[in-house]
Batch of 3 targets.
Target 1
Amino acid sequence: MATTTTSHEMVRDVNWTQVVFVAAGVPALVLFSMGGISATVGAPAWLVWTISVLFGFAQSFTYAEIAGLHPSKTGGTAVHGATAWIRYSQILAPLSLWSNWLAWTPVLAIGTGLGAGYLLSIFFEPGSSILSWQVTLLDLGFVSEGLTLRINATFLLGAAIMLVCFAIQHRGILRTAQIQALLTIASLLPLFIVCIIPLLQGKVLMSNFEPFTPLATQDGQVVPGAWDKGGILLFCGGLFIAAWSTYAFETSVCYMSEFKNPGRDMPRAIIVSGLICIVAYIIIPVVFQGVLGTQKMLDPGIADGSGIGLALASMIDAGPIITKLLVLALLLSLILAIMTAMAGSSRTLNQGGQDGWLPRYLGYVNHHGAPTRAMWTDLAFNLVLLAMSNYLFVLAVSNCNYLIFNFLNLNAGWIHRLDNPRVPRPWRCPNWLLALGTILAYVNAFLLGAGANVWGKGTLLAGFISAALVIPFFLYRHYVTDKGVFPAHMQRDLILRGETTLGPKHAGMLPYLALAGGIAACLLGYVIFWR
């Protein structure tokens, strides 16, 4: 007999406008890697962001269609895509879910770490003992050079911020959406204002975009490079890491089981969120580059993200008081991103626990409809990540998983079309956009192979190893806990609306060929640039 999962139902509490506010933390993700991309790619960094966010917008239409096939499921497109792959592989389905979670959950650690750095930067001088104090717990140099686990002021302050975000989300998605709306006004508007003022003042200088070439290193010095193999590699590395931020508004579809009207609300939420992100991810990097210029971007504080707040304040010649207020506003924008990630990633874990992919305890939700056990799991995992000394490496490994998820789910769009042609869809993606999304799946696979190791030797390998960790979790849940039988409701969910039985696999060998093509595209990117 099939096993069942005991849990409360999610509450249908929100409409599309409220979910847009929940997803409003995504534009703030530009703060996570804008400095690192600018310090690596140079003047073309704004073009990296523009191309990447347009990729993300094109892909979102595929996500919108497959999410509409499962109006009762939460957890985002990884959950909806997994139902396409489950007919072809029991491992690929949980891999999609796991990779999506590993992509989203580090936002908590990286965001709180950067937020703590912002606060420390405005209240303490660079040489202060509180900034240099730390206790090293473990040397992780075998994973990445210089990587350690440590306890310092950033960790302690970041942990406090993380707990505040957890407390807010404990009361469910409606309360989260209400608080997110206030945070959006208090944080993102100042961020946009900081970018608009330099434009109006004429501080965005065309000379800061010249020479329009990637950076290079000569005799130990960073100099303008060329559009040669090395320059293209850095540009690919920029496109690779930017995807972690620019594609992320697909989190809008994480709330299918909490929308009041899923068919109406879901496509509106993801499209409006995408348009907001296009504006943010084009304007902010352009102004950042145009005002500060390449030389300023090479400042270590900008490269690691900790000095972004002070750099943005300098763009409007802010005095000490305004600088502190601005940095506090940027901290709120990071909290916005953290809450967006905590809401989305915990629901991915929750649905995985309900559907038999991940440990059963994750399937529980409290009486507010919040997946609290999944949230506690998120919290504990991110306290470990918060203790790591190199957040950009954590982000890069996380993004390896994100592009794995991205590949599987963009291909899930056409697999669902072939296997479930007659199933009614609340929103149907135009055929040309579905095809474009499939092409971009292979572009992203290529960027994974080419760009991952730009952010540290061993990043690509670490990404694949972290993705493979889902295998023992799934095997234990499926064969030990559930005795080899999926929960009954998960099997029912495979039979979509309008169908009475699970139909034949019309896609045949095509999913396996698609998977082989993705592996080949990744290997091609790696071989071209690293062999």
Target 2
Amino acid sequence: MNPSRISGVVVLRKMSDAWTMAMDAALTHVLSSEAGARVADAAELRILRRLTAGFLAGLLLLPAGLSALIGAAAGLPIGVSLAVSLYLITAVALVAGTRFGARLASRAADPQADNSVDPWDYCPGLFLTLDTTGVVRGSGGRDRDMFLSFLREPLSRPFVEQVHVSDRIAFARALDDLRLGADVVVIDVRLDRPVLGLDQTQFLNVRLDMTAMRNAAGELVAVRAQMLDIEGEMKMRDAVRVKEHEAHAAHELKSRFLAAVSHEMRTPLNAILGFSDILAGEYFGKLENDRQREYVQLIRQSGAHLLSVVNTMLDMSKIEAGRYELMMESFDAAETLIECERMLSLQATAKGVKLSSRLPRGLGEITADSRALRQIVINLIGNAIKFTDAGGAVTLDAARRGSDFVVSISDTGVGIAPEKIALLGRPFTQIQDDLNRNHEGSGLGLSLVKGLTALHGGTFMIESRKGEGTVVTITLPADGSGVLNADEDNMVEFPPRLSQTVSTDKESGKAARHDQAEAKIA
């Protein structure tokens, strides 16, 4: 064979191979883009390659034939458009037919592949399809076999027959809500067990999450219900209910114990105070020396302090148990505050603390429990004097702000650190809690103040700076409306929670605490 002819054949073959590779690459790109991540099939490439070769021939012959018949001006564009359209339609038809044939072949090879999988089978629980009357038309779900093992043949029967008699009204109401337009209804019902196991109860507690299925007109056509076993949740509810009952019983027992002990201790304390007063007055004979007089005075002071603690405990237990009754009356506020100042003036003078008041004219009358107001003011002034060193000052202020009556007690005492503010007001809690504390007390004063303020529907606020002093502000409704709007039995959360967290001014080191002290049923 002629060498030049051989070389020409080789060149043509290489050109053909290059054209084939380029065409396959282009067709592969088109098929992959159209089918997402699906890899182009070799049969599809082979069919499209042959179609493209025929298209190139038709692209030349069809426009040429039309040009000869109707002229080049109209024949060329019409011929090209017609050839391209025929190519695209034929390509789509051939590829679709190839894929459809491959799918049929795979189903013929694997008969089970034709069975569609319900997506609800991967979801927990039992899925039921109900018609508008509540009859079960289908079932599915991951736990279908477990639920159907004790249900009494639910298919084609009203589901309400499976529900316990006491819960059938709730199920019927939920189904009616879906008919009336609700999209989702969730109810808890009990199902009867026809056969009981050794560790099974008569009823199974389940939760039905019912979703409405509607047509284009919005009419209910079916209900899809997911059933979940909530036996564990019900056991937790029962355990919580038992613990809550036990805690309430213990709380009540503790309150009764405090009230009983406080009441029983006051009788001997009154005797101690009475006899110590007789000894100190030397009504039945002179004491021999000053040491005896000092001891009698110490007995009197200790007994008075213990009686004060007992009375505070009794009042606190009454508030905590909801049995503290407020005796509401209208009285002159300034007169009551001045009386409290006079009661504690001797204590302040003995410690070297200046106690003063700044009461504006026209303070007027307020409606409150006068005894409770005295307890609030006396406790606050007593605390201020206790934590103020000699040479310091304690000031009592009061004002009317709209419909509120505001009392403020400020001191120049030791102050309170910002991190200690959160501990204030807790029963039997004191800020200075080390062994060498300098101030006596039971830690009940502020708890009682907060409780009495809560019963009046008032607010309680503390502002303090370490080493500079403290300001305590009590705000009460002047007309007594806080008590009138409170709960009927005057139950309060004791000790009342402070509604805001401790806020500290980093520049001044000032800490403030505000307490809404809202009354609530315990």
Target 3
Amino acid sequence: MKFLSRHLFIILAFALLISACKSQKNTTTGTRPSGTINSSPSSPNPGADLPVKKLPLAPVALQPLTFQMPEMPREFRGVWIATVANIDWPTSPNDSYAKQKQDFINLLDYYKNLNFNAVIVQIRTAGDAFYPSNLAPWSKYLTGKQGKAPSTTENPLTWMINESHARGLEFHAWLNPYRATMNLNTSDLSPEHDYNLHRDWMLKYDTKYYYNPGLPEVKAHLLAVIKEIVDNYDIDAIHFDDYFYPYKVAKLDFPDKTTYNKYKKPGQSQDDWRRDNVNQLILALNQTIKQSKPWVQFGISPFGVWRNQSMDPTGSPTRAGQTNYDDLYADVLLWMKNDWVDYMLPQLYWSMDHKLASHRILNDWWAKNHYNTNVYIGNGPYKIREDSDDAWDDPREINKQISYTRTLPTIQGNAFFSAKSMKLKNQDVAQLLKTELYNEPTLPPAFQPKSPSIIDTPVVFSVEANSELTSIRMANPLDPAIRYALIQGANELDQLADSEIHPVWVGGLRARTLEVKSLNTEFLAIRWIDHYGRIVQTQVYQIP
């Protein structure tokens, strides 16, 4: 019997090898040596208690099945981790690097436990950096003094990305493009800050300095900042928030008239010229990102109101005091129409039926005006029990909002500002969210490549397991475009698709063998995810 089973397994494995197909996808450049990936039993997301079919100490070969797994559900579940002014992390710039790391891990584990699948981490706050850069000094929010490096030989950004990926969390690198300082006290700025290197790029407005968006040199510099990050880090997305031209201050004009007079086109109004400056930056950023790594997403999280209907019949029936188009000079609809962004994440930080800007009405508006761009909704749990709007006294306000968003098929998820708002306080809100709406894990939305490309579909040669470890051997080294192996186990086939997901990060490693903690279940599924988030291959196995 063993002899027959072994030959049956070899025949099936060989059939899988022969039938390996090519899937449209882009591969990374440069590879690491092929080898073994070991997923330690102490790695995050150890999993719930599963019914155990105890395997022997000696490895046994698992038998491949032809069972078809259904497509996994998709929903973006993100959280902003704000570093400016130490809002979320680090808790203090004076903490030791070891404590800062532990605090970051605690944030990741907390939101992973809530079944989130993405973190949006602020890595540039105001002309600074949370990573070693040739274009910006170290952030004072990381080390206490701008330009001072952290007390480690480790790259903090590489470490944060790796820890996020190890938990199956997408890492969206969040930057503020035009904000240069947080106040007018320039004596604390590093000699390497752009204020000191390029004073002619700076404009003072109210209580801050800003990069002048109308200068070609500023645009070129910002493109270089983004390219440095995309080229050197395994991020999933570049993310901008709502700070383009600054929010207007009463009776105070943004001082860019000289630049406008120099660079305006014939007959071009100052407002249109400002919008064109931002439009050209967004277009160039999209091109820069996609030329380097086509799978890296470009997402924008704008202010929640594009235009009021009183100004434009296409606008929303709202009465916002400022809007993207008219005050921040951000024509977000144009960016979606032209396919310059991969997702839009409007900040709808109002209650469901707010009189001036209803969360419900704005959900409807964005659901209608998506132009085939992925749209997620930004929610504001920071307002719970902290706002003059009585609606926020209800801890169920967030659940009401998510439930409504889910009724709109053109909106694919949510993100929450900010991390501490449901961790340091309002944990009851977080538990309501998990219990009622985020009770099961899910994958974030996938993206399709914009140009043809090839990826080698993973082919499993054999799977062997004992009571401790499961070894997955590949017929060929994994294509570097494969990001994850998602492992699931169950004792019934019809329960396999809904069982807990154990992500194993394999991105770019060219591994031929994976060793993962044995789940000791009757059935095992392996789903391979590429760097666009697509499932490119699924295999199901049974313990003999």
